[in-house]
């Protein structure tokens, strides 16, 4: 479960990435009257398959996010794997085993002698 501070940080992170995307980046037709520099909340919510009110609350840090929802929001915001891992950590999902990639065992084996000495 995320803390209020982590929820606020997650919201700021999501807002920053939403502001970076342009409608054309995600296949939306740009309009002449946009007050928002990037995507609108309703556009992200629709692409992620969540309700607008819930996505708004997520950005405001008022609701916890499941892994599945964060993955959907990350796809909508075009986050890279590092961005997704960071969002997961901000949301309180610290399952390191799920993020281990290939070669992790080799790295651990290479570092073990240093740790032993």
Task: Explain the overall architecture.
With 117 residues, the chain is an all-alpha fold. It has a single domain, classed as Orthogonal Bundle (434 Repressor (Amino-terminal Domain)), CATH 1.10.260.40. 57% of the residues lie in helices and 0% in strands. It contains six helices and no strands. It is elongated, with a radius of gyration of 17 Å. The N and C termini lie far apart (38 Å). The mean pLDDT is 85.
Lay out the secondary structure:
Elements lengths: L3 H17 L20 H8 L3 H9 L6 H10 L4 H10 L13 H13 L1
Helix pairs in contact: 2-3, 2-4, 4-5
Provide a count of the helices. Answer: 6
Count of spatially separate domains: 1
- Beta-strand residue fraction: under 5%
Name the helix and strand elements from N-terminus to C-terminus, one letter apiece: HHHHHH
Under the CATH scheme, the architecture is Orthogonal Bundle
What share of residues is helical? 55-70%
As an assembly, this protein is: single chain
Assign the CATH superfamily: lambda repressor-like DNA-binding domains
Q: Could you please say which CATH topology applies here?
A: 434 Repressor (Amino-terminal Domain)
As a whole number of angstroms, the C-alpha radius of gyration is 17 Å
What sort of overall outline do the alpha carbons produce when their principal axes are compared? elongated
Look at the structure and give the mean pLDDT. Answer: 85
Rounded to the nearest angstrom, the distance between the terminal CA atoms is 38 Å
Structural class: mainly alpha
| Strand elements, count | 0
Instruction: Name the poorly predicted regions.
Output: none
The biggest beta sheet reads: none
Briefly, what CATH class?
Answer: Mainly Alpha
């Amino acid at each position: 479960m995320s803390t209020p501070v982590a929820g606020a940080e997650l919201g700021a992170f999501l807002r920053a990435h939403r502001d970076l995307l342009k409608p054309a980046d995600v296949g939306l037709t740009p309009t002449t009257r946009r007050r928002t520099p990037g995507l609108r909340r309703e556009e992200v919510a629709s692409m992620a398959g969540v309700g607008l009110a819930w996505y708004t609350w997520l950005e405001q840090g008022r609701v916890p996010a499941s892994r599945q929802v964060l993955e959907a929001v990350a796809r909508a915001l075009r986050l890279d794997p590092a961005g997704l891992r960071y969002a997961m950590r901000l949301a309180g999902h610290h399952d390191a085993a799920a993020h281990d990639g290939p070669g992790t065992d080799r790295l651990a084996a290479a570092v073990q002698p240093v740790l032993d000495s």
